[in-house]
Structures are given as C-alpha cells and as structure tokens.
C-alpha cells in the first residue's frame, strides 16, 4: 500500500470519527499518529506527536489567541453590546427598518472589538430581538438579522478565524486583519441594503401586518447620552485597531492592550464582580485551550500529509486534468460550504488548508485573498443547516419556544444569499481584499 493511499485512508477515517462524535483535535491526532506509524514506525510516530506538541504553539505569536478572546469576554460583560445597539437605534430611528439596520451596524462595531461570531449572536439575541419584536418586526426576521449579521465578527478584524488562517498559511496576522476591513464593510453594507429593500419594497416580509410600529421610546435618547455610550467603544476600537495598523503594536500587544482596555471599561461601569471575573477568566481558558489544542493537532496532521505526499499529488493531478485556478477555487468553495453543514468553522480550516494551500500557491494565487475567501465561505456554514453554530447560539440565547430552529434558518436565508453574492464579488475583484494588506 502506497503512502498516498494511506494518506487518503487517514483523512477518510478522520471524517468518520468526527461524524461519530469524536473531538476534532483528538481525531486529527489519532489518525495522523496511526498513519505515520504505518508509514514509518511507532518511534517516529511518537516523535511526531511530541514535536507537534512542542513546536506548534510555543511561538510568542500564539499569545494573540487568549488575549483577543479575553478582550471579547470583557466586552461582553461590560454592556458595550447593549450600548452599541442603543446608539445605532437612535441614529437610524428615522429610517424604515431602522432596528434591523441598527442590529447590523452594532454587530459590525461589536465585531471590531471581539472577533467572535458566537459572542455577537449571544449578545444581540438578548438585546435586539425583543426590541424588534416589540416594534412590530416578524419573529423570523428578528432572529434572522441577528444570526445573519453575527458572522461579521469573523470577517471584520480582529477575527479568530483570520488568526487561525494566518498561523496555518504562515501569513502575517496583521495583514490578514487589514485584508478583512474592506470585505467586512462591504458585507455589512450589503446586509443593510437587503434590509432597506425589504423595508421599502416588501414590508410584509419583515413587519407584522406590513406596518412598522412607531419608535417613541428612542426619543428619550439624546446626542449627549448617545455620545457618552459610544465614546468608550470608539476609544477601544481606536486603541486596538489604530495601534495595530499604525505599526505601534504587534497583534499580540494589541490583544493585550485591548484586553486591558476592556477590563477598565468593565470596572468603570461596575459590571465586573469577582464572580463574573472568575467566569470570564475560566471561559477564556476554555476557549483558548480548545483553539490552541486544535492548532497543535493540525500541525501533526499537516506533517502527516506532507509525509504521504498528498498535497503534491493532488496539485499534479489537478494540473494534468486541465483544471484551471477558477475551477479549483469553485470546487474548493463548494466543499467548504458543504462541510459547514456538518462541522464547525475552525475544524473545516484545519482539515482543508493543509491540503489546498500548496495547490493555491501552485496556481500563484494570493494567499491573503485566498484567506479572505476561505473565511467568508466558512462563515456561510455558520448559518446553514443542519449544523449552523450561530443559529443554535441564537436559539439557546433566545429561550423562546415559539421561535423554532426552522424559523431561524429561514430568517437567515436572505443573508446567506447575500454572502454568496459577496463571495462572488470578492473572487472576481481580489484587490478588494489585498489593497490595504499590500500597502
């Protein structure tokens, strides 16, 4: 049996184990260890595991993961999400569909200081959905706009998926963050345009009875109170992203400064008790360890694939078949979207990238542009059945039996369609992703 055949068998076994319920990291390690054992020897397989555990995450750069996660946790408990929504609600109060637009805008700003879609989905389900339903929005649209716009957290920097891609592809995380700005703003603008189209042309799709109720409560907000709420948010965004993009901070330092800034905001607002602080720290540990364990497992998986010669063999096969870069890109995106229906976003990247990155490089594709397309394609999986992590997060945070999982998936469908259109645009115009990153 050839090494290449063993490599394909290892991938098949890994997918079976994941479907059966094994943790993705454990599945990666077990199948990679077994494949190297068969190809070489038990001693080399053991050394491979040791090298992956020792080398994969010891670099200073990996401190960016727990620091940005910690910043996101402090932001979540500080009430920044609620205040962000209040400010956008006041700014957009005169527009039909203003609460939907406020949700998208608040999600976009919240994404710029968290980078975790699940956090956005959880916060704005509790903040925005009750407000929209109270003002006559249909339940399906209310949950759909929250789940749909929550994916902005993975595209607008700082983004956890951008960090993971940068690590695996050995691309600058700072450049990956820069590459996500224009696509993130573009996607948020397309979501806003979608809501305006529905509000003015098809009001019965988003308003109960086709009529938006008056929003008298928001008149209690003034420019002064809105400024007081928004200044801390603005300062945190400027501190983190301004310092990062000006070159004053490295990504890791930006994460540390952001976490400290979010901590200060939570203290000043008196939202951080000792109990909540302990919950924030433990939750940060859980998330960070899970991500870093996956990265270590992916390192072993990548080495196993390189040993079998699979990436080179696939690249050669695609070349001999006459498939060009566009055919490869289309097939890759379709596979990623389909995988998003059954496994989570991080797992998709860890499984697919070690295989496809050498192929993309062989086609002379810009790997930063390729990363933006990957993140957006993976984001679509957050909203598609049956897995749809953001959808299940909204359902869990909502705690309303009258709104079913089916309602939420149906509400997110227009946003999924917009994301597919955005993916098509970004594929046709790579400069939208690379212009800022290459400056």
Automatic annotation (TrEMBL):
Bilayer-spanning residue ranges: 6-39, 60-81, 101-129, 141-165, 177-202, 223-248, 254-272, 284-306, 326-355, 367-388, 408-429
Function: Part of the tripartite ATP-independent periplasmic (TRAP) transport system.
PANTHER family: C4-DICARBOXYLATE TRAP TRANSPORTER LARGE PERMEASE PROTEIN DCTM, SIALIC ACID TRAP TRANSPORTER PERMEASE PROTEIN SIAT-RELATED
Annotated localization: Cell inner membrane
Pfam families according to UniProt: DctM
UniProt KW keywords: Cell inner membrane, Cell membrane, Membrane, Transmembrane, Transmembrane helix, Transport
InterPro entries membership: DctM, TRAP_DctM
Chief location category: membrane
Subunit annotation: The complex comprises the extracytoplasmic solute receptor protein and the two transmembrane proteins.
Family: Belongs to the TRAP transporter large permease family.
Protein name listed in UniProt: TRAP transporter large permease protein
UniProt domain TRAP C4-dicarboxylate transport system permease DctM subunit: residue ranges: 12-431
């Amino acid at each position: 049996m050839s090494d290449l055949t063993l490599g394909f068998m290892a991938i098949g076994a890994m997918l079976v184990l994941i479907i059966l319920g094994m943790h993705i990291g454990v599945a990666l390690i077990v199948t990679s260890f077994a494949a190297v054992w068969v190809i070489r020897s038990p001693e080399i397989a053991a050394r491979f595991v040791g090298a992956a555990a020792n080398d994969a995450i010891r670099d200073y750069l990996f401190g960016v993961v727990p620091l940005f996660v910690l910043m996101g946790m402090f932001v979540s408990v500080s009430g920044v999400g609620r205040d962000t929504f209040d400010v956008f609600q006041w700014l957009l109060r005169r527009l039909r569909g203003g609460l939907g637009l406020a949700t998208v805008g608040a999600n976009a700003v919240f994404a710029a200081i968290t980078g975790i879609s699940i956090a956005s989905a959880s916060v704005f389900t509790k903040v925005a959905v009750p407000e929209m339903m109270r003002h006559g929005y249909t339940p399906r649209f209310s949950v759909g706009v929250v789940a749909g716009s929550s994916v902005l957290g993975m595209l607008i920097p700082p983004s956890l998926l951008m960090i993971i891609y940068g690590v695996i592809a050995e691309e600058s995380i700072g450049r990956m963050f820069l590459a996500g700005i224009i696509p993130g703003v573009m996607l948020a603008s397309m979501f806003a345009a979608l809501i305006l189209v529905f509000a003015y042309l098809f009001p019965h799709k988003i308003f109960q009875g086709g009529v938006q109720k008056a929003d008298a409560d928001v008149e209690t907000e003034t420019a002064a109170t809105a400024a007081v709420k928004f200044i801390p948010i603005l300062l945190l965004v400027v501190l983190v992203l301004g310092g990062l993009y000006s070159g004053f901070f490295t990504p890791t330092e930006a994460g540390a400064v952001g976490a400290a800034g979010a901590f200060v905001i939570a203290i000043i607002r008196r939202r951080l008790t000792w109990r909540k602080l302990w919950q924030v720290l433990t939750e940060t540990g859980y998330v960070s360890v899970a991500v870093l364990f996956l990265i270590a497992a992916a390192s072993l998986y990548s080495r196993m694939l390189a040993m079998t010669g699979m990436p080179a063999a696939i690249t050669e096969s695609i070349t001999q078949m006459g498939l060009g870069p566009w055919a490869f890109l289309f097939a890759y995106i379709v596979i990623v979207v389909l995988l998003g229906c059954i496994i989570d976003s991080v797992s998709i990247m860890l499984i697919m990238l070690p295989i496809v990155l050498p192929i993309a490089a062989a086609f002379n594709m810009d790997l930063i542009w390729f990363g933006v397309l990957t993140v957006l394609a993976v984001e679509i999986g957050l909203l598609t059945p049956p897995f749809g992590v953001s959808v299940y997060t909204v359902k869990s945070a909502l705690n309303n039996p009258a709104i079913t999982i089916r309602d939420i998936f149906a509400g997110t469908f227009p946003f999924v369609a917009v994301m597919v259109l955005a993916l098509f645009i970004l594929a046709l115009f790579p400069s939208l992703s690379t212009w800022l990153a290459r400056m």
